[in-house]
Specification:
Elements: E1 3-8, H1 23-40, E2 44-47, H2 59-69, E3 74-81, H3 87-100, E4 105-110, H4 120-123, H5 134-149, E5 155-156, E6 168-169, E7 182-185, H6 189-198, E8 201-204, E9 207-208, H7 216-234, E10 242-246, E11 248-250, H8 254-260, H9 263-266, E12 271-275, E13 278-282, E14 286-288, H10 290-298, H11 301-305, E15 308-313, H12 319-333
Parallel strand pairs: 1-2, 1-15, 2-3, 3-4, 4-7, 7-8, 8-10, 10-15, 11-14
Antiparallel strand pairs: 5-6, 9-13, 12-13
Helix pairs in contact: 1-2, 1-12, 2-3, 3-5, 6-7, 10-12
Length: 348
């Protein structure tokens, strides 16, 4: 069963052409786009989390507002940088948001990506322990967060104020099932295997911080296959979900052509470059006539292998334009990759 969602980077800026001049507009338009997407039959509303930049940084107020305005669509992140997080406070926020949504929260987390701040997590008060690097700290925070949302005790009880209770207290509230809806943003095949071993769903984006010379979709499909193998070997008691992100811009009218027509040829190929010191492969954009994009996406090896496709949207063009874009994808392109807006969705 294929799902499609949108992924917004949440940019705002007072520049010519931007319909999102302020942070307030970025947040309010994110809510409105989620409402519009649900009306179109889209399955998910996901948001990038990026600190020290004009993007979304604290996702839970936004996700809670979307939860309160919608009834069916999933809402989530792609991804939360766990170097920055207080794991127990995040567990409380996540559980509360999930309860408001009746179990629709899908949280993507990871070690994080290159950022404007030289050492932003340290400014938030988080430093690696002795013998750790930043990635180790992110994984440690993730492990404690996952223990907390799974209901394990995490703080010693004081019998004088805990009704005589002793031992370790769990965080409150708890939201049953949330622990199975945590995704790890994996940038390599190795981290995808690790995510499977840990029992987290796989979130793979439009870049991988490794390159073997094969096309991006094939490298990503290999990552997914390795994830599935490791998941099966680990013997987890539920089926994982796997998402990939794609930039898909159907040129359906003159407005689309004005904004993106010149990019149609330039962005049709993968790109290889250095990111954060590693040779990385960036996936191509899909820009062109809807029928052509439907045929091309249907051949994308990773899109075929995943159960969820997240469509990156140019959020600074406003709600109306992005709702139109999503509607064109839903009508003309998504059915070619196995998506059916009328198919009954089951929560996981």
């Amino acid at each position: 069963m294929k799902r499609i969602g949108f992924l917004s980077f949440g940019h705002w800026a007072k520049v010519p052409g931007s319909l999102v001049p302020t942070a307030g507009e970025a947040l309010k338009q994110g809510i409105e786009l989620a409402v519009a997407a649900e009306e179109l039959g889209i399955d998910g509303a996901f948001f990038r989390v990026h600190h020290f930049a004009r993007q979304q940084a604290s996702p839970f107020p936004l996700l809670s507002a979307i939860a309160a305005r919608t009834t069916r669509i999933e809402m989530g992140t792609g991804v939360i940088d766990m170097r920055y997080e207080n794991p127990l406070y995040m567990a409380e926020e996540a559980a509360a948001t999930d309860l408001i949504s009746d179990g629709r929260l899908q949280l993507g987390v990871s070690r994080g990506s290159p950022e404007p701040a030289k050492n932003g997590a340290a400014s938030f008060g988080y430093l690696p322990a002795e013998g750790e690097d930043a990635g180790d700290m992110a994984r440690r925070h993730t492990a404690l967060f996952r223990r907390a949302i799974a209901g394990h005790g995490v703080a010693e009880a004081d019998p004088h104020y805990a009704g005589g209770a002793t031992g370790l207290l769990p965080i409150q509230p708890q939201s049953p099932g949330l622990s199975r809806r945590i995704w790890w943003g994996a940038g390599t095949r190795k981290t995808a295997i690790w995510a499977a071993e840990q029992g987290m769903n796989l979130m793979s984006s439009t870049l991988l911080t490794e390159d073997t010379g094969v096309p991006f979709d094939e490298l990503q499909a290999e990552q997914i296959a390795l994830f599935r193998e490791a998941w099966a070997a680990a013997g987890h008691d539920f089926e994982p979900r796997i998402s990939v992100s794609r930039s898909v811009i159907p040129i359906a009218d003159e407005q689309d052509n004005h904004y993106f027509g010149l990019r149609a040829q330039a962005d049709r190929q993968d790109q290889v470059g250095i990111l954060d010191g590693a040779l990385s492969r960036f996936g191509r954009s899909y820009i062109g006539a809807p029928d052509e994009l439907a045929e091309e996406l249907a051949k994308d090896a990773a899109v075929r292998a995943a159960d969820t496709v997240l469509l990156t949207v140019p959020n600074q063009l406003g709600v109306d334009y992005n709702a139109k874009l999503l509607g064109n994808v839903a009508k003309h392109i998504a059915p070619a990759i196995g998506w059916n807006p009328k198919r009954e969705r089951t929560r996981h």
